[in-house]
Amino acid sequence: MLRTDLSRDNSLVADVRQARLITPLWLAIPLGGGLLIVVTALLAPLAVPPLGRLLKALSEPVYATYFSSIVTILAFAFTALVLFLWVRLVEGRPFHTIGFRIRGALLGIPLGLGLALLFTTLIMGGLSAFGMATPRPPGNDPIGMAAMQGIVVAAVMFGVQASTEEMLYRGWMQNVIAVRQGAFLAILIVTVAFTWAHSRNPGFSLLPGVNLVLFAVFLSLLTLRTGGLWAGCAWHAGWNWSLSNLWGVPLSGIEPEGGSAMAWHLSGPAVLTGGAWGPEGGLLATAVLAGATVWVALWRGLGARIPAPAPAMTPEARLAAYRATHRR
User: Fold this and answer.
1) Fewer beta carbons within 10 Å, N or C terminal of the chain?
2) Phi (first) and psi of residue 205, to 5 degrees
3) What is the DSSP letter of 135?
4) Distance, CA of 160 to chain centre
């Protein structure tokens, strides 16, 4: 039975109990919070120069267009590999117990993608309605059908990047904490770690920080309410890809790479448009993410409903029941 309540018996949390050794809190926090930082800030710079020289020698156009995407894919794939080895060899449990049971994929993936496209459309539609988002002519990057190859590469990149983050934060770290300390403390710790990891991006300020907190809490609740990572991975990847390569606007302070289906120019107060951070750093995103977080917190999820315990019988009721079942 799939349980999607917020207790320690939630199916996603309960799967941690299959481990031979559950990672303790004192180790889960630095490992979960620091793994991506170590890989992207320390190890990746060592591998980037030789990789760049190799790719440039093989194909100058591929190097010029997709080098950043390839580096991102490899860095996050390496992070996912480290996490896989930790779960399998140290904790001693199947890797699918971090949230990849097949039963949830058919519903979770379209649910996550659909919600992501809905939310980004609401944000961009709101900016357009207020005259703060207007179509712009193509710049250096291709737009529309000319950008199809880059759009596909970006979809793969965001699929790997977003899924790795979900595996690390909401699939592993959150649940090894929740199984002992409870879901609420786990969500708090994971939200702080996730927000801190993204605060190093260009254009970060108070409002983008608030929206990152809402972003993280929404994803934590979505994974618990669906009992797996499928919806969370799809939503996170769909959000990133649609803002960057569907709408063609900055994402977390980073300009779109490889082209986009559309291109929009943002103008107006940064508190609404998100400024250099992009639309996900503005008040429209705050409203959408806050509403989504409230909804998923109140939603009972995809799991079976847990019946309320029967009320205790009074002595008189027990006596009457006994007499009714022992009549001659």
Assistant:
1) C
2) -155, -170
3) E
4) 11
